[in-house]
Design a protein that fits this description.
InterPro entries: RCK_C, RCK_C_sf. Keywords: Membrane, Transmembrane, Transmembrane helix. By secondary structure, this protein is an alpha+beta fold. It folds into two domains: 129 residues; 77 residues, Regulator of K+ conductance, C-terminal domain (Alpha-Beta Plaits, 2-Layer Sandwich). The protein has eight helices and four strands, in the order H-H-H-H-H-H-H-E-E-E-E-H. Strand 2 and strand 3 form a beta hairpin. Helix 1 runs parallel beside helix 5. The protein is elongated. The protein starts with a helix and ends with a helix.
Length: 225
Amino acid sequence: MGFVFILLYFLIVALVIEISVIAFTLTGLEKGVARYQAISMLTGTGFTTDESQLIIDHPIRRRISMGLILFGAFSLAVIISAITNILSDDLRLNKLMIISSVLLVIFILGKTPMTKKLLQHRFEYEMKKNLDISELPIKEALFLSEDDVVTDLVIEEKTPLDGKKVEGAFEHGHDINLLFIKRGEVNIRENLVDETIQAGDKLYLYGNKQAIEKLTEEMESEKPR
């Protein structure tokens, strides 16, 4: 009976992880990253990665992560207690089976398109209601459509933009906006139009994804061989 209890509890843990993965992906997180971070938070290991910033900077993901961390701490205590009392008859398997069944139903519902759509709308509403635009992650703040993107472009020596004034660097009518230039450790934002682009600069661009990809391809094709 004790082994059945432990197996059922591990099933609960697995379902909690998968439900959390669904919730994270509905906020825009990639599934692989979501699963790794969920397991990291649940076990209290490996959460200090660069990807953890994606959780910390997002208010809804922070709420999900808090629940996972608390559940992980509780789970450790339960598992230790179960192993200690492995021969006990009073393991309350019926209640554990009910919890497993409820979580399984939640997991199945969470996989349905209708539930995902409802949760996405709810998450978007919470983001807009509770946050100033300055607190939003870049994607939610600036990606106004599927074709919008924020990216960086490193300028190499003797490529088309090397030595050009910012004012004349981008063709009129193309949806490409220069946010700022990173030159070494300095971020240049003021008087950008008067700035001359130099080799080694990193340009942070915002605009139409296809237009920026085309510019990147042109830069690659015109590199000196």
